[in-house]
Amino acid sequence: MTPARDEAVRRLAGEAWRARCTIEREAAERFDRLADRLVGAGFPAALSALARRSSRDERRHAALCAVEAARREVPVADGAAQPAEIAPAGLGAREAALYEVVAACCVTETESMSVLTTLLACEVQPPLRPVLRELARDEVRHARLGWACLAHASGRGESAFLSPLVPAMLAGAAPPDLFEDVGGERDDPALLHHGVLPHRLKREVFVETLTQVIAPGLASLGVDPAPARAWLAGRAGGR
Ligand SMILES: [Fe+2]
Ligand SMILES: [Fe+2]
What distance in angstroms lies between residue 58's CA and the mean position of ligand 1's atoms? Predict the structure, then answer.
């Protein structure tokens, strides 16, 4: 690899780890907020407790991501990230809490699990392996929180309303240019060594996880996945 390419990959990977740090900080705040909202909306206390524990996990993840960014000479500023309100206006408290936990966990955390699983199957730099394993171990539990909340709602016949709202969750989880061909250094396979998926592979993992894991999971819990599949077809249909 030429020094220029090596430098470009290192910088890009550092920026990706910095972005992850911000996402982890947001997730920490979101899980703390969700813990209160879930208990307030009548979900079982065990699920609220799992959200609280997830918040602590995400703070630890944020620190790990900041270290990886710094190792690649990309500094990360201190500070908390405030998570946006994502539930559509007009939902009741229970529906809004369910929307948020499904978007954050069934969609985002499940996608995140797939990214980590893919990376762990690649030849990443050896010091990264324990970091990725630690992240994966926790993210799988965070994904399960969403599926457990959805199962709880489904058991009471309260999950079907989510079906037409899933495309908005997907749009929130997918990077804005995921379905564009960006080429160049963002598709460099050398990014994998730094624990970062090249753009094209990131898209493949996203689509595979949506079609093979998330859509069937939603369907099994009373959420018709047809709008989610239509959303995907509208973006990936030409591929
Ligand atoms: Fe995390
Ligand atoms: Fe997580």
Answer: 5
